[in-house]
Design a protein that fits this description.
Strand content: 25-35%
Region (Disordered): 42-74, 127-146
Structural class: mainly beta
CATH superfamily of the domain at 148-271: Cupredoxins -  blue copper proteins
CATH topology of the domain at 148-271: Immunoglobulin-like
Radius of gyration: 22 Å
Family: Belongs to the multicopper oxidase family.
Shape: globular
Organism: Hortaea werneckii
Strand order of the largest sheet: 14-13-16-21-18-19
CATH architecture of the domain at 148-271: Sandwich
Signal peptide: 1-17
Distance between the termini: 26 Å
InterPro entries: Cu-oxidase-like_N, Cu-oxidase_2nd, Cu-oxidase_fam, Cupredoxin
Order of helices and strands: HHEEEEHEEEEEEEEEHEEEEEEEEEEH
Number of helices: 5
Length: 463
């Protein structure tokens, strides 16, 4: 039972500001329990229906956990790593409004981010004045710009299909992922949240912000506030007192696993040199079942013999394909993966965000080194790597140099790594643990499959 409650805590309440440091330890403990339990199940005789059910004698028959091979039993039908039927290109077979609603994240027309936002009373120079990453303690000396950034969030349900599998998801302003909040360091952010859900409350947490003087704006129901009741609204107002890349998400039950989440970018001093800010790279594990079914699963009595939920896919900016032959759900092949544009010779800032419910992300770009310039809200001494590891809630900003040819196309990858059944640390079913996106240089065909090969990373760095 203990492992079930740990898994429930992972899924329902990863609420700490900054990195969720307890998540890794919890996953390891949970994974160990699952591996031990799996070994016991696999050496005994059990029903193999995949669901717990009472036997004719009234005794609960426990399921045999069935970790799947990559691509599932029907994986041979698809061209990896984007799970395309043979001969298909990356021209998506679903329109964006069916997969992600009104979201532009992951599409080629997604806007690049500015160095800072306009509208400051200071009509020249940076909104934070002479403050710098090297010489200013942002915890002690945040600016006060006198500017408030206003947003409205409408929380509702709608059918979405981020990976081609249709589900009734939760969206904000008709988008999954939700809208990107932008502000300058020292601005105030004001968000009116309208709860259009008919049957439950909601709340929004602004991940990693200190909420000095505004602890009641942190968005954790039953701690800082009552849930926002159906048909009502609540106005959050707080200061952007730190700067960097982060995210916002529902903190009511496990709603953010159902879709109430999005990036939050606070512009401030930086120590990296780059030409363009490519914006958020939002990494999320994804479940085909409804979030409330997942909560029921993790909170079920021990005698049900249920294991914690396994994620079914992994997404980059809310997009990935799925090998549809492995599911009985309504599924469209080649729903569409995320795409990005590079120009040869330019340097790009990428804001990596793990907005998942449980999975540890391992991020890489084929053939590229990444210069890490910031972790969470903290500028750091730069270092170079070919693999970034992010726990749930963590963010890492990197700079990459587009050193390819004008007609190149390469893969961006984020993998959940081996599942707990295989001795890994992630609760996924093994069918689609790796999300891919395509990076196209200026003259490349944006429907073509990249032919790049993954970086030669030792296995121990992936597990």
């Amino acid at each position: 039972m203990a492992s079930k409650l740990l898994a429930a805590a992972l899924l329902v309440a990863p609420a700490l500001s900054g990195p969720v440091t307890t998540t890794v330890a919890t996953v390891v403990e949970t994974a160990t329990t699952i591996v031990e339990t799996t070994a016991q199940y696999n050496t005994a005789s059990h029903a193999t229906t995949g669901d717990s059910h009472p036997s004719s004698t009234g005794e609960v028959v426990e399921p045999t956990p069935s970790p799947h091979q990559y691509g599932g039993e029907e994986g041979w039908r698809y061209h990896s790593p984007a799970f395309l039927p043979e001969g298909w290109t990356l021209e998506p077979s679903m329109p964006r409004w069916k997969t992600n609603g009104d979201s532009k994240l992951g599409f080629l027309d997604a806007p690049k981010l500015p160095e800072w936002l306009g509208g400051s009373p200071m009509n020249h120079g940076r909104p934070w004045g002479s403050r710098s990453a090297e010489h200013t303690n942002q915890y002690q000396d945040p600016p006060n710009t006198g500017v408030t950034r206003h947003y409205e969030f409408n929380v509702s349900r709608m059918d979405i299909a981020p990976d081609g599998v249709v589900k009734n998801g939760l969206v904000v302003n008709g988008q999954f992922p939700g809208p990107t909040i932008e502000a300058n360091w020292g601005d105030y952010i004001e968000v009116i949240v309208y709860n259009n859900l008919e049957d439950e409350g909601t709340s929004i947490h602004w991940h990693g912000l200190l909420q000095k003087d505004t602890p009641y704006m942190d968005g954790v129901p039953s701690v800082q506030q009552c849930p926002i009741a159906p048909g009502s609204s609540f106005t959050y107002r707080f200061k952007a007192d730190l700067y960097g890349s982060s995210w916002w998400h529902s903190h009511y039950s496990a709603q953010y696993a159902g879709g109430i989440e999005g990036p939050m970018i606070i512009y401030g001093p930086n120590t990296g040199s780059y030409d363009e800010d490519l914006g958020p790279i939002f990494l999320t594990d994804w479940y085909h079942d409804s979030y409330y079914d997942l909560v029921e699963q993790v909170m079920a009595p021990a005698d049900k013999g249920l294991l914690p939920p396994m994620s079914n896919n992994n997404l980059i900016n809310g997009k990935m394909n799925y090998p549809c032959a492995n599911t009985t759900y309504d599924c469209t092949p080649n729903a569409g993966i995320a795409k990005f544009k590079f120009e040869s010779g330019k340097k790009y800032r990428l804001r990596l965000i793990n907005g998942g419910a449980e999975g540890i992300q391992k991020f890489s770009i084929d053939g590229m080194k990444m210069t890490v310039i910031q972790n969470d809200y903290v500028p750091i001494e730069h270092y170079v790597t070919d693999l970034i590891t992010l726990g749930v809630g963590q963010r890492t900003d990197v700079v990459v140099e587009a050193d390819g040819k004008p007609d190149d196309a390469i893969w961006m990858r984020s993998t959940l790594g081996p599942s707990a059944f295989e001795g890994g640390c992630t609760l996924n079913d093994g069918i689609s643990p790796e999300a891919v996106a395509a990076i196209y240089y200026e003259n490349a065909n944006t429907s073509a499959l990249p032919t790049s090969e993954r970086n030669p990373i030792p296995k121990e760095r992936i597990t």
